[in-house]
Structures are given as C-alpha cells and as structure tokens.
Amino acid sequence: MTIATPDIARLAASPDEVLARLFTSMNVDGVYGRTGAYEDVVDGLGRYIGTLRPKGAEVFRFPPVVSRALIEKSGYLKSFPHLLGCVCALGADPKRVTDAVARYEAGGTWADSAEPSELVLAPAACYPIYPIAAKRGAISDTLLFDVASDCFRREPSKDIDRLQSFRMREFVAIGAPVEISVFRDQWMARAPEIAGDLGLNHSIDAASDPFFGREGQMVGRFQVANALKFEMLIPVRSPESATACMSFNCHKDHFGLTWGMNTVDGEPAHTACVAFGVDRLAVALFARHGVEVGGWPKAVRGKLGV
Ligand code: AMP
Ligand code: ZN
Known about the structure:
The protein is of the alpha+beta class. It has helices at residues 15-22, 36-52, 68-74, 76-79, 94-105, 129-134, 177-189, 191-198, 213-225, 254-258, 278-289, 298-304; strands at 23-28, 31-34, 58-61, 65-67, 86-89, 115-121, 143-152, 165-175, 203-206, 229-235, 242-252, 270-277.
C-alpha cells in the first residue's frame, strides 16, 4: 500500500524515544506506565473526539471488565479466543486461599489455585452497548452512542503501538441497514479531516479482524470481500509501515440477531462502530510531531487544547 503525502518520511521521534520519554516500563511487554505529558495528550484527544461526537449520541463509559457471559454470547470467544483475558481469583474459600498463599511462600506458585471468575477483560469498548440498547425495544430512529473503556488484548509485543492494555473510544450506531451503512461510510469520509486536524499522514485500507484459526481466516476474507472493515493507517514506528489507529466497522445484523434487537419493521437491527485507538493516536502524534508538545504545530495543539 502506498501513502501519497510526500513528507511521509518525516517522523520526528523514533519508537525508542517515545518509549523512553513518554512511557515507563512495568516489566511486561505491551503494558506501560504513562507520563503526565502523554496523558495530557490523551486528555486532549478525548476532548477533540468529543467535538466530533454525533449529534444526539448518548455517552457511556465502561469499566475495563465485562461479564464473561456477554463476551461469550457476542461471539468473541469463537472469533478471538487467543486475544481474550479472563479474570481469575482465589475467592473467599479460606482453605483455597491459605493453601495458595502457603504454596507461594514455600517458593511455588499460587495462581494455579485461582478459578475463573464471571469477568473477562474488555476486548473492545462497544460490546456492552448492544444488550443495553436491546432492552429499549424496537428501534425507530437510529440509536447513537459514544462509548469508551480500557481494553485488553493478549498480544504481548515490544512494539510501542501494540499494547496489551490500551484505551478505545467508539461511536456506535444501531438501526436500519441503510442508515447504518451510511453512518459507517460518512465516518470513513471524515478520516482525512481527522488526520488533517491532528497533522498526521494517513491512508485508508480495507482490513480484516485477526480471527482465530483456519476457519477464522475465511471469515477474515469474507470481511474484506464484503468491505465490512476499514482502517485508518498512520505511520508510527517507521514511515514505511503504517499502524491502524482507527477502524470503521459494519457488523451487519450480527449483534441485532445476537441480542434480539429489531427495528420497528421487525427486521434485525444493523450495527456499526467507529473506533478511535486512543493510545495509538497519541503515540502517532508524538512520533510525528516530536516528544516535546511545545514544538508541535500550533493548529494541532489548538485542536487538542494542549
Ligand atoms: P479493532 O476493534 O481491532 O478495530 O480496534 C480498534 C482500534 O483499537 C484499532 O484501530 C487500534 O487503533 C486500537 N487497537 C487495537 N489493538 C490494539 C493494540 N494491541 N494496542 C493498541 N491499540 C490497539
Ligand atoms: Zn466496536
């Protein structure tokens, strides 16, 4: 894939500089402490994305954990079992706890005594919204939501743009097929405006989710062939290899059927989500404009309020 803008070669900070200046190691790949300077930009991105919020969108902020049942029912386990993290705990059984702690203190492990709880780590921000919307009954006008959460995906890596723990903000639309498809396409059409506001070079490309296994690869091909997922790619680690910082997803009737969510004409609702990878966008900003926010273009600082 080629990226048209000629000054693409200019990345002001290397991944190592970004890592050293804005993150602090927590001795786990893809899990970092973040500095105040970095968080100011994350906050700025939050404000900026807020200015883009679709009119009438309802805001929800979700915790970093969701019920295991929600994720199982949503089909995530079937599609992405390799990325999912489950919360395990020793629980309140005194014998289990005492044995596990004693084993640890004797130089062994405690974690194998832990049992899976009813919680998993949220793999994306939008999953909880579908059952919430489904409870509201048949949909006449498109429902719009602005959701966010800390997300976890089990993909340990040393790359600064592939985190195990990262923040995601999403605009979600639920309604009739035509409106939902228009919603997704209109957001894709706004990608140049968003990248422009942030002073980032970008391209848009068809994409597929990282489905598990051979069967999953077929689902991925189906996704590409049916133009269900697009990504906004921005150079982060090198000018040549761009990173997906936003995605524009159409789920067709998947969540409508899963949650019994219908439009007023009795048909399964369609859904779409536009996801902002907040940490990837923040890292992209530092890589592109430099580790000192004071040196960033005025227009970009203005948009972010930093
Ligand atoms: P997806 O649901 O895979 O389309 O993810 C939505 C957005 O979250 C992506 O476009 C990325 O910007 C971001 N994202 C996904 N995985 C990661 C990761 N491992 N580290 C950081 N950001 C991620
Ligand atoms: Zn989503």
